[in-house]
Design a protein that fits this description.
Length: 178
């Protein structure tokens, strides 16, 4: 089967990654044998923009199509790092547990949404997040499906399994911009 998602950033390029792994076979048998990462491709350490984006505008990024073995998958962690003048590197991960689940079926495509990182500076979230930023995970299938089909014309139907991340109660996982 195929996993389809978009990944990128809002306003400026910032690195991050969401890790996924297969947790069960299609029949429900537990397994831990396949993993991957959802992360943007930036133009370099000092270039704060997406390298060769598939789409640009407020959101800039890529539509990614990955072939994965059938089964049930889980995303339950993210990481990103930063630093500044006189500061060492600082890394962040989720303090609030979350579980984004999706299924891959043989011969089918599953779209899990658009994963964007945005700066929190200048938003109502700035006092709580400082410069750490937040993640916008939303359904952008109208934008992403035509790009995916242009990349892999054999994609027929694409099933949408976009999780409403607001259910997790994390300030950094959002469905809409503040």
């Amino acid at each position: 089967g195929f996993l389809v998602y978009a990944v990128g950033t809002i306003a400026i390029g910032m690195h991050f990654d969401f890790s996924y792994r297969r947790v069960a076979l299609p029949d429900g048998t537990p397994i831990q044998d396949w993993k991957g990462s959802i992360e943007p491709t930036l133009g370099g350490a000092w270039v704060l923009k997406i390298k060769s984006p598939d789409f640009t505008g407020r959101e800039s990024g890529h539509v990614v199509i990955r072939r994965l073995p059938p089964g049930n998958y889980l995303i339950d962690q993210f990481a990103f790092a930063g630093g500044g003048m006189g500061m060492g590197a600082i890394s962040w991960s989720s303090a609030v547990p979350f579980a984004i689940r999706f299924a891959i079926k043989s011969g089918a495509a599953t779209y899990i949404g658009s994963f964007m990182r945005a700066p929190s500076l200048g938003t109502p979230m700035e006092p709580q997040l400082n410069a750490a930023g937040y993640f916008l995970i939303a359904d952008r299938s109208t934008r992403d499906f035509p790009i995916a089909r242009a990349k892999v014309p054999a994609l027929a139907a694409i099933t949408t399994e976009v999780t409403d991340v607001t259910q997790f109660g994390s300030i950094v996982l959002r469905r809409d911009e503040p």
